Amino acid sequence: MGSHLADVWFQVTDLAVVSGSGCTVTTEDGTEYLDFTSGIAVTSTGHCHPTVVAAIQEQATKFIHAQVNCYRHPLLEQLATRLADIAPSGIDTFFFANSGAEATEAAVKLAKHATARPNVVVFQGSFHGRSHLTMAMTTSKTGYRAGYQPLPSGIFVTPFPYAVRDGGTEADAVKRALAAFDLLLVTQTAPAETAAVVMEPVLGEGGYLPAPRAFVEGIKVRCEQHGILFVADEVQSGFGRCGTMFAIESSGIDPDIVVMAKGIASGFPISAIGASAEIMGRWPVGAHGGTYGGNPIGCAAALATIDVLTAPGFMENVRDRGEQLRAGLRHLAVTHPVIGDVRGPGLMVGCEIFDAGGQPDAARVAAVAAHCRDEGRLLLMNAGTAGNVLRWMPPLVVSEAEITTALDAFGAALTATA
Ligand SMILES: Cc1ncc(COP(=O)(O)O)c(C=O)c1O
User: Fold this and answer.
1) pLDDT, tens digit, 9 for 90 and up, residues 133-167
2) Which of 40, 62, 104, 295 has its CA 20 to 30 A from that of 30?
C-alpha cells in the first residue's frame, strides 16, 4: 500500500522534515536546510521559538479547548487587549477564528451586516483563501478555482497597479487602476450595493507586489465617500513581515477591518479580525461563531509571539535584513539581468525573473529554486500569476549571516541555471 495521504496538496519540495529551529529545518536523514519559506510566511519568530514553545506548553496543562460560546478563558480578553495595542489606529475589538480564509470570510460577513449591503470588491491577482467564498475572491491563478465553479456571487474584481507587467510608470498604473475602480462602481456594483473593498497591502500569492501609497489612498478616499468599508487582508503582510506591525501602516490610512492570521501565533492555527467597537457592534449576537475560534493554546501562542515581535530591536532587524536582502538582490541583478525587479517592504521581498525576451520565466524560477534546495540547502518558493516571482519570506529572526548565505546560494543557482 502506498501513502494514505490525499494527493491534493501541491508540493514545494519532497523533503521529509522532522524538526525546526529558528531559520532551519532538519530532514529525517539529518540534513539541515535554511527555511526561507517560513511555512508560507508563518513562522516569523522562527521555528519553535523558546518563548512561544514555553507558552504553549504551559497553556496545554491548563486548558486545550475552552469553547467560547460555553464559557470564556482569560487569554481571550488578554489577546484582544494586546492586539488593540498593536493594531492600526481605530481597530480595538476582535473576533477569533482559525485560518486566514476563515477570517477573511468573517470580515466579509461583518461588512455585510455592518453596511446592510451585499457585494465585495477585490483586486486582480489577490489571494484570500481556499473556501468557496474566498476562492471567489481569489484571482491570482485560475488553478485555485478550476473545477469548483460556479463560485459564490457578489464578488467584483478590479485591477491592481502592476507597472512592471503592464508598462508605464507607477503613477500611470495607479491612475489606470483607480479609473477602473470608478468604472466598476458605475457599471457593475453600485456604491449602495457595495459593502467592502478587500485589499492585500502587499499582494502575496499574486507576486509580492506592494500597493502604491497613492493607490491605497485613492481607494480609501472612494470608500469614505461611498460608505464602503476598507478591509485590509494582512494575513501574509501582518505581524512584522513588512518591517512594521501591519503593512497598511506605511500607507498612512486607517482600515475599517483588518484580517490577521499566519504570523500571529508563529504557526499555531489561530486567526482574527479586528474593527472598531462601533463597526463590530453592528454584528448581532449569534450572527457568527465557530467551535474552535479563540482556542486557549492559540491565544497563548499569539501572546508569546507578540511579546517576541515587540521586544526592543526586533523590528529593526526586520528592516535591516530587508535592506540587506534587497541590496544583495539588486547587486546580483547587475550580473544577472534576468532579475527584472526587486521589491517589497521589510522581509516580504519579491524578485521577478524574465527571460532574454523580457517574458516571465517561471521555468527559470523553478530551476533556480531547485538548485538552491539541492546545492545551497536553501528553501525558496515562487509566487505570481505567471509563477516567475521568487518570494523571500525568511523568519523575521533571520541573521545577517543567514541572509548572506542565502544570497550566495541564490547567486550560484542563477549562474548554474544560465
Ligand atoms: C493574503 C492572504 N489571505 C488569506 C490567505 C488564506 O489563509 P489560510 O491559508 O490560512 O486559509 C492567505 C494564504 O496564503 C493569504 O496569503
Assistant:
1) 999 999 999 999 999 999 999 999 999 999 999 99
2) 40
Pair (193, 213) in one structural domain:
yes
Cα dihedral angle (206, 175, 159, 128), rounded to 10 degrees? 50
Torsion of CA 11, 12, 13, 15, to 10 degrees: -70
Question: How far, in Å, from the CA of 329 to the mean position of ligand 1?
Answer: 26
- CATH code: domain of residue 82: 3.40.640.10
* Residue 128 alpha carbon to ligand 1 centre in Å: 5
List beta partners, residue 354: 360
Torsion of Cα atoms, 255 then 393 then 308 then 277, to 10°: 10
Contact predicate 319/240, CB 8 Å:
no
Does pTM surpass 0.90?
A: yes
Q: Report pLDDT digits (tens) over 47-106.
A: 999 999 999 999 999 999 999 999 999 999 999 999 999 999 999 999 999 999 999 999
Residue 40 domain flag: no
Residues in CB range of 222: below 8 A, 6 or more apart? 178, 181, 182, 185, 228
Is 342 found in the same domain as 273? Answer: no
Q: Ligand 1, residues 134, 235, 259, 389: which to mutate, most atoms within 8 A of Cβ?
A: 235
